[in-house]
Amino acid sequence: MPHANPRYAAGPPPASGQDHRRVVVVGGGLVGLTLALDLARHGVAVTLLDAEDSVATGSRAICFAKRTLEIYARLGLGERLLAKGVTWKTGRVFHKDRQAYEFDLLPEEGHRHPAFVNIQQYHVEAWLVEACAEAGVDLRWRHEVTGLASDATGATLDVATPGGAYTLRADWLLACDGARSFIRRSLGLPFQGQIFQDRFLIADVVIRGAVAFPAERWFWFDPPFHPGQSVLLHKQPDDLWRIDFQLGPKAEPEADPEVELQPDRVRARVAAMLGPDVPFDLEWVSLYTFRCRRLDRFVQDRVIFAGDSAHQVSPFGARGGNGGVQDADNLAWKLAAILKGQAGPALLGSYEAERIAAAEENILHSTRATDFISPKSDAARAYRDAVLDLAEGHAFARALVNSGRLSRPALLATSPLNAPDDGNWPGGAAPGSPAPDAPVQRDGTPDWLLCHLGGDFALLVFDAVWTPVPGLRAVFITAEETPGALWDHSGLAAARFGAPPGGAVLIRPDQHIAARFAAPRAGAVRAALARALGQLEHAA
Q1: pLDDT tens digit string along 135-153?
Q2: Which residues contact 309 (CB under 8 A, 6 or more apart)?
Q3: Phi/psi at 441 (nearest 5 deg)?
C-alpha cells in the first residue's frame, strides 16, 4: 500500500479580503518548512502558504547528510531522524558484474551524527509541520499564490483558497516554491546553466523479508540486469528501497515517459535486478532529468529565493535537499537579526554571496557526475570504462570515478563575514567552516559540543580567562575537568579546531566559524562580531 500522508485543513481567507504579514514563506516543502521553523525559533512571526494540503509524495530527497542532521538537531528534530532513519556511511561502486571498490564516508570516531541517514522526505516534512505548528508558525494550506507584485518595501500577493480569494502584503517574501516556482516566473527571472537530456526512473519498492542488500549506497555502471546504463540503490525505513534507473536521452524511444511509467514495465526492470523469486510492491514511481542551473541573484529587493526555486542540481550526490536546508540555515538568522534591529539589510548580501558560492560548487560537482554517468561520446565512454576497470586494483583511478560526489557542507572561505585570524593559529577548522562536533563532558555527564552552539553568537574559549562582552555568550572548553565548563576529555575539540591554549573561536548562529583569536581581546572580538553581522564599517 502506498504511504498515506496526513492531510491538513485549509484555513479560511481573512474576512476583510486583505492581510499584512511581516514575513511570508511560499512553499511548504522541505526548505520552506525548515526556514519557517528556524525563523520561529529566532522569535520571528512567520506565515507559510502552500497550494497543497499535504507533504511530499514519494521518497524524493532521501539522503540527509551529516551537516543537515546537525541543523535539524539544532531545530529539535535530530533524535527523530536518527531513530527512524537508516544510518549508513559505506558506498560501493560496481562495473558490469563485479565490484570496482568501496569507500567510507566517515572513517573517524567521535561524531554524534553519522555521515548520512536515509529517510523518506515525507516523514521529515510531516515532523516539520508538527514543529512549525508548535512554534506558532501560521500555516495556511491550500492557499495558492496566483499573482505577485513586488517593490523595494515588500511584495503584494493574490491568494486563492477554497473559501475565496484575498490579498496579502508581505514585508519580506521568501520563495521556497520549488523548481517550478511561481514567484520566480512571475518576476521573469531566468536560470543560468543547463538541462541534460538523459531521463532517469525512480522506483520506491517495498521488499518484505530478508534481502541481500545492506544499508549502503550501491551504484552500478553497465550492470547485467540493466546493460548500457546505470543504477543506484538506497535502503530506506519501512522495508522501502529507492532504485534509480538510467533510461537514456529523451530523444530515444525507450525513454518515452508514458511507456516507462507503466507499472508492468517498471516491475520488469525491478524484477530483472532483484531476481524472479523476490516479491516486492511498487509504492511510487517518477521520471526526472538532470538540471544543473541557478538564478543569477538570490535576493531581489524584499523577495529572497531558497532551495530549488534558486538552484537545481542532479539528484546523484544528495546535493539538492541538503543544499536547500543549508540555504534555510544560512538565511534564517540573518533575516531575524535584521528584523530585530541587530543588523541592517546589507547582511543579506552575505546570504547571496555564500549560498551562490555553495550552489556553484554543487552545480560543478553535479555536472561532472552527469558527464561521467552519461558519457556524450564514444571517447568519453571509453575513458569512463577504463577508469572503472582500473579502479578495482589501483587507488589513483578511484579518485576519477564519479557516481555523484556526495554532499559536503559548504565551506564559506571567501565570506565577507569572516574576520582574518587574530594571532598565530596553527591549523584546524578555518573561518567559514561549519564548527566541527566533538564529544565533551559537563559536570560528569557525556555531551556533545554542538549541543551548546546555534541560535545565537557564541565564543568558544579554550582554557582561557575571559571578560564577558555584552550580548555575546561564552562557552568554556577546558583540558581538565572544571565545574560548569565543557571538558574536552578526548582532546578532539581542541584538535579539530586547532585551538591553542588560551585561544577562542567566534561561532555564528548557524554554527559556522566567523573568527579565531590566539589570545582574545575584547576589542578584537567586538570588531569580529560586528563584521559577522555585516557591519563592516564598525569592524575595522
Answers
A1: 999 999 999 999 999 999 9
A2: 27, 175, 176, 177, 178, 179, 181, 183, 184
A3: -130, 145
- Rounded-to-5 percentages of helix, strand, coil across the chain: 30, 30, 40
475 φ, ψ (degrees, to nearest 5): -120, 115
pLDDT for residue 58? 84
As a three-state string, the secondary structure of 202-261 is: EEEEECCCCCCCCCCEEEEECCCCCCCCEEEEEEECCCEEEEEEEEEECCCHHHCHHHHC
| Domains of the chain with CATH codes | 18-85+118-191+294-372 (3.50.50.60), 439-538 (3.40.30.120)
Task: Please give the grid coordinates belonging to residue 451.
Answer: 549541543
| pLDDT given at position 255 | 57
pLDDT at residue number 106 = 85
User: Which amino acid is residue 131, in one-letter code?
Assistant: A
- What does the alpha-carbon distance between residue 452 and residue 511 come to, in Å, rounded to a whole number? 10
Cell, residue 345: 539589510
Q: Helices (H), strands (E): how many in the chain?
A: 13, 26
Output the pTM of the full model: 0.95
Q: What is the pLDDT of residue 340?
A: 96
Give the pLDDT confidence score for residue 374 in this predicted structure: 87
Listed as ranges, residues in the chain with pLDDT below 50 are 251, 540
Q: How far is CA 27 from the centre of its chain?
A: 16
